[in-house]
Write a structure and sequence with these properties.
500 residues, mainly alpha, two-stranded parallel ribbon, 21 helices, 2 strands, globular
Length: 500
């Protein structure tokens, strides 16, 4: 129940001044966006090359007569990395809240680049037998552990650096980096499969993209070591109380923030199923299930991702202007209504119609990629943001996102219907719609536990005007609730004089 003193308490709270607003220098902001987006691109290049060479990897490490079994085994190793992503999130996420975002992000870069490079060194099954798939699986687990601390950390880092009014636009560049990394990986895979003979590809050609990860990792590490810590984390460390033990922090994070954790998990389901369906599985679907050439599938996906890269910043801008919720809801509604028509178009013999089907799915996926990187960090306060996102995101991604290729292939094999991936996307779209409807709008607002952030003093003054107007509206709401309660009390007193 709201007490009569609530209004006076709200009025006594000190009003913010311009000095309370965090000013983000333009030069620093540009460096942060560039380094974070390119670092993320390098991470997802490493992760993407495996998906785009899944068919070849299946033949190298899982020899056998049945192509479906080979593909399932290859995607099984792909999905295995997602089993350890929650472990990576459980360990690296809280470390990011304790030691700092920048340090952990540099560490994830080392792990991802090193493990990817080493995959290129593994001898084939014909050379060392069962040790080949065992080594492949081990290195995939290292990749998964690294990714467990990477994406949520990059999302947190960029979100805490962004001014409030353009956080959606700036955070969307994180997924621009994802798409760029996937484009480079897909382009390299397409060039190799179209220029090398089948024998050369199986012998040594498939290793080239993995070897590229070495120098890319060095560049990415250099860029991340040059980054500064986020203003929100630095401010938090100044005011933080005595630190809890890691185990106690984890219990507090889960038990004390179960509602935002569940919201994050629900949003990530539609976010990541769409990501891995559109960007990882569809090239294989076009070639293995529909009989299109592998080259055609790869080049069409490259063209799609280039278009998505162009759309991406505009999707982020839309989330700043109209809100995160409308943009995410639009993506869910699009998947629900257009998944079946899009997969029908994929069955066409016309390249134009096949690309149109891909484009339908890609545009709606842009809604998630544009709005989610700024939506998820807003669910949590500074003290637990990195860890909470890492845990919730990786738990959901492991169960639903990374298993998308495996589940889709398995459902088709089980039912005999190549439309099962469309039905799967429709189911997760409904989940996403229900979750976003009960998620608070966070557009153009400070992150929880953080000061308002602006790019200059003029914008800071405008933010304060909005802040003071919001405070005034809250006071009016409290006063209105008090007046209503007092009226109810008076009515009850009239009916029952004994309670006066």
């Amino acid at each position: 129940m709201v007490s009569a003193s609530s209004g006076s308490v709200a009025r006594k709270k000190r009003a913010l001044t311009v000095d309370d607003v965090t000013l983000i220098e333009t030069k620093s902001l540009k460096r942060t966006i560039t380094a974070t987006a390119l670092g993320n691109a390098m991470e997802w290049f490493d992760f993407g090359v495996y998906a785009y060479l899944a068919t070849i990897i299946g033949r190298v490490f899982f020899p056998g007569g049945d192509p479906t079994i080979q593909l399932l085994a290859s995607f099984g190793a792909f999905a295995a990395a997602f089993l350890v992503r929650p472990i990576g999130g459980l360990i690296l996420g809280p470390l990011g809240d304790k030691l700092g975002r920048q340090k952990v992000l540099a560490f994830t870069m080392i792990m991802m680049a090193g493990s990817t490079f080493c995959i290129g060194l593994i001898p084939s099954y014909n050379s060392i037998g069962v040790w080949a798939p065992i080594l492949l699986l081990a290195l995939r687990l290292v990749q998964g552990f690294s990714t467990g601390g990477e994406f949520g950390g990059a999302m947190t880092y960029l979100g805490e650096h962004a001014p409030d009014r353009i956080r959606g636009f700036l955070s969307s560049w994180l997924e621009f980096g994802t798409l760029f990394g996937y484009v480079v990986a897909a382009l390299l895979a397409a060039v190799l499969t179209s220029t090398l003979s089948d024998e050369a590809l199986l012998d040594w050609g498939w290793r080239i993209p993995f070897f590229v990860a070495g120098p890319l990792g060095i560049v990415g590490l250099y860029m991340r070591m040059k980054l500064e810590e986020t203003p929100a984390f630095e401010e938090h460390k100044k005011t933080a109380e005595v630190e809890e033990s890691a185990a106690r922090e984890l219990v507090t994070m889960v038990s004390g923030h179960w509602r935002p954790m569940l919201l994050c998990i629900g949003l990530v389901i539609v976010y990541m199923v769409g990501t891995y369906m559109v960007l990882s599985y569809l090239p294989t679907y076009l070639s293995s299930e529909l009989g299109h050439s592998a080259d055609m599938g790869n080049y069409l996906l490259i063209a799609l991702m280039v278009v998505m890269m162009i759309i991406q910043p505009f999707a982020g801008m839309a989330s700043d202007k109209w809100g995160r919720r409308p943009v995410i809801f639009t993506g869910c509604l699009g998947f629900l209504l257009f998944s079946i028509p899009a997969f029908w178009l994929l069955h066409s013999d016309s390249l134009v119609l096949v690309f149109l089907g891909l484009l339908m799915l890609g545009v709606f996926q842009n809604c998630f990629m544009g709005a989610m990187p700024s939506t998820l960090p807003a669910l949590f306060s500074t003290s637990i943001r990195y860890g909470a996102i890492a845990i919730a995101l990786n738990f959901s991604t492991s169960l639903f996102g990374g298993t998308t290729p495996l589940v889709s292939t398995g459902l088709i094999d089980l039912t005999g219907s190549d439309m099962m991936p469309a039905y799967y996307m429709m189911i997760v779209a409904v989940i996403g719609m229900l979750v976003i409807l009960v998620t608070a709008e966070s557009s153009r607002k400070p992150l929880q536990g953080s000061k308002p952030a602006a790019s200059d003093r003029e914008e800071a003054k405008e933010l304060l005007a909005d802040h003071h107007q919001d405070i005034a509206e809250r006071i009016r709401d409290v006063d209105s609730q008090i007046a209503e309660l007092q009226k109810i009390r008076a009515d009850l007193a009239d009916q029952h004089p004994s309670i006066r």
